[in-house]
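Are you able to produce any protein sequence you like plus the matching backbone structure tokens because I've never seen that pairing?
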Amino acid sequence: MTSTDDTSPTSTAGPGAGGSGRPPAMTDVARFVGVSHQTVSRVINNHPNVRPQTRARVLAAMTELGYRPNTAARALATGRARALGVLTPPGTLFGPLSTLSGIEEAAWAAGYQLSVVSLRSVDQASVQQAVSRLMRLSIDGVIAIAPLLDSGEALGLVARSIPFVAVEGYPQGDLAVVSVDQECGARMATEHLLAAGHPTVWHLAGPDRYFEGVSRVNGWRDALLDAGAAVPPVLTGDWTARTGYEYGKVLARRLDVTAIFVANDQMALGALRALREHGRRVPEEVSVVGFDDIPEAGYFSPPLTTIRQDFTEVGRQSLRSLIAQIESGASSRTRVVIPPSLVVRQSTAPPPAQ
């Protein structure tokens, strides 16, 4: 689809609604950027027919001017509150928190407010209680960050009563889902190590209650089988650096281990420490690949080769899917799968000469 927007000459109006002291309006943003108010409206409503450069300029102007969309007025005009609920899983794992950040960024750009409820557990009673809390706030729809396998039934009930999107989970296919291709990421990590010449790759996995944990095991195993490589036993951790360290000590004692794919960067950090303490040099003797590309990954010792997930795109696509349901009044089973990417740093190399 061809992008369209207004490209009238840039105005010389400054920030702060021209210094009038009143709150900035949509017309002030339009004048500041030099576009029509319809273009600003398209950006606020996340309309696709706006050039990326123009969208960025409008969003920057909204921030500089301190403009906030008038959600109350639009609620009266459309019958919608322009408010969304987000359910997040228990804990403080990097993936769910980064997914929430991506959703918040996309919601702000589209002029939606968020109400976030963190679940203490993902059983049916807890989910229903959380949704009841959100419904009292007159929300238009719900996004659930749902990485746990046992959350499916409870989330399915939610989707019957309100526009709904599950993020990073629920593979059964009868809900709208946005996720990163976890199996593809695990396969990329494993194939990178095999291509370097390692005879096989050991895997330190995440918990088997998580979709990501199971999917990454599947991608790792499939890559080994397709290459005709031996499939070592899976070592299952709990996403923490502590378990990475404990299993790293086990693998460090095995001189036949030359390559390890770790299911997240935190566990990889623990494994790197264990290998170093046992005199196993990385990457000269053992290569290590993580998953997530946390901000600190490039500062590990050595800098960590890892799989990057685009959480900003996850947020954008999940919000787009939910808004489509809200505006159409129809539920959806659309599945959006976002590809990961391999980030190569200094923790991988060919195996040592035998």
Q: What stands out?
A: The chain is about 40% helix and 15% strand. Residues 17-68 form a domain with the 434 Repressor (Amino-terminal Domain) fold (CATH 1.10.260.40). The two ends are 56 Å apart (CA to CA).
